[in-house]
Request: fold
Amino acid sequence: MDASSPPNALRPRRPAAGLAVSGAWLPAVLAIVGWWALPIGRPNRPFLTIDPDLYAFAIGHPLLWLTLVAVVVAFGLSFLPIPTVRRGDLLVVAGAVALASAVLWFMLDRTPFGLGALLLLVGLVMVLSHALSESGRIQGDAFIAASILFVSLFVLLFILYPLFTVLRSSVFIDGRFDFSVFLRTLQHPLFFMLGNERSAIDEVGLTLRWGAGGLVAFAAFALWRRVAWTKVLTRALLGGAFGLVVGALLYGNGALPTSLLLVAIVAPTATLLGLAFALLGQRARFGIVRRSLDVISILPIITPPFVLAFAMIFLLGRRGLITYNLLDMQSGWIFGIPGVALAQILAFTPVAYLLLRGSLSSLNPALEEAAQTLGANAWVTLRTITWPLVRPGLAAAFLLSMIESLADFGNPIILGGNRKYMATEVYLSLTGRFNPNEAAVYGAILLLMVLGAFFLQRWWLGGGSFVTVTGKPTSGALAPIPRGLEIGLTAVLFVWTVFVAALYLSIVVGSFAQLWGVNYTFTLRHYQDFFTGAGWEVFLFTARVAAISAIPAMLLGFLVAYLVARLRFLGRRFVEFGSLLSFATPGTVMGVAYIFAFNTGPVLLTASATIIVVALVFRNMPVAIRAAVAGLAQIDPSLEEASTMLRAKSATTMRRVLFPLLINTLVTGLIFAFVRAMTAVSQVIFLVSPGNQFATVLLLGWVDQGQLGRAAAMGTILIVSLLLVIVVVLQVARMLGTRMVGVRT
Reply:
């Protein structure tokens, strides 16, 4: 030993491994500050309201004192010189007791939470995150543990809990189980009626004839196939049931048969048209066809969901340019199922096209090339190879079309006529008939119908394998579609393009016409009314709320995608399914669910802009999740492992490695979240309030009031502004992505 070295007793001791101070001490301090220095509750709906009388109004409650004691214990444990894992276990107990006590107090007292409660809960979750990380119960640092906890709590609070309140309110009246409202709603003519005494036709008799026809047809087909008599009887009964269902949909009245008939028309039509356009987009021989399809794919993204229905009034209404001016007709045929179905097909087909284009582009060309080598012509290859392999894409497009049709609110409100629809009845029950339990019943049935669509998709796909991308090198050219089919599909696309272009042009022309259908004199009055009245202020408020909600939707989607794609932890499937459930649930159901969940109690958010922002964040987050998951699948995990080996924390790895590589993908999610927020209507129509009006809701009100010129002006401004935002943000993202990649290189 060197003589200059101090003796052992005088040497400074290094801290033993695992005896460092726990990071839980800082969030424990934040929790104590929230408990003591800030008001736990708030006096009214504005979240940032601070009332001095609320600083100590709940200090005497034993649960809050238990929370404080547990937090102080956690603070003390953070400095306890014992092994990290053992200290982590003790911190888990202290943090869990503190968090459970605080949450239980809020549930029992039902006081709207204030700034102190927010800081208290955030601090407690962070304490528990450090504890779970240090104890080894979550394989990751405190950031990963906190991310898992916060995302799980968000899914519970803002997705699953609101849906639970809808189901509960449908069968619980004044806190007691009561199934009578559910039964009355199902038996009401507004929901379903067959056999109207005022009807000029025998609806029951016609329905029975459809049942008998189905029975005979299915039995005859079974006999022709020479199957066993037991199978003949089974298929005959299935045919009879199918015929009865078809007859009830055709001749029944009420929201249920109307919505199901609409789904039966829209979902297969939109899916098949989407497949036709996807085939053209991937395999058309003319480049102009593919370029026109690129334009079609972006139009539904920047268009409010009911603007095409609004434009159809300009062209096909009683004073429409085509029906009245060209054909000399004053028919109102578009006000009913035909008009709503046409508007939905126009709106949902481009979405189905985008889904199916991705499915077709992922097919292995070698399979089709092998079929042609064996002598199969283009028709046989399309039927036996291409069609079976795109079944997952077809199922996804069909399911999405079903959900969108059931959830559609704007088109039925504008073109619904005297028919009833499930989505509109949710709204009318709550705001028109002032019956929240009836609205909950309609919402619960809609939710069950969506879940039924999921099971239908899984049944159709069955247990087949659709793997065509194996990781092995592939070669071969895509098989061209039959020339006759291409000519026919191109003709359909041409008619589609002309009609859609006429619809959009009618919106622009209608915004400058004095009075559509009567006086086409050029005027700027509608734009002047828009900018000088409430329209411009509402537009700016909508843009501000959409921008505020888009950023957390993108970031939260990125975080959830990282958790479910890169980590394995208890509850991963729950986080993934719960995060995506809000997108699959009809907007009207989520809107009424937020009213039930956040109109009273500790999470009081209604009549404020906060509830709109929260609703838009969790409504649009799933798209960012799917985009980020797809992007992460293309990034080698070894990059993150290298960052970890260099002692970088998880947050640093995500910020400095993954975020720059996913910038274009994340910007896509950001744009989608912003545009969807700007064009949202079915969910936010329940959540708007005086001073918190939304552009689409105002536009819908103008259409309902007959102010078509002003509505056309707002629709034109919405479409043009959103198109400009997309172009500018994509250009900035491209420049930023190039710069960030260059810096990293």
Residues 194-252 form one domain. The two ends are 48 Å apart (CA to CA). The first strand starts at residue 172 and ends at 173. The chain has four domains: 18-137, 194-252, 254-498+512-517, 525-744.
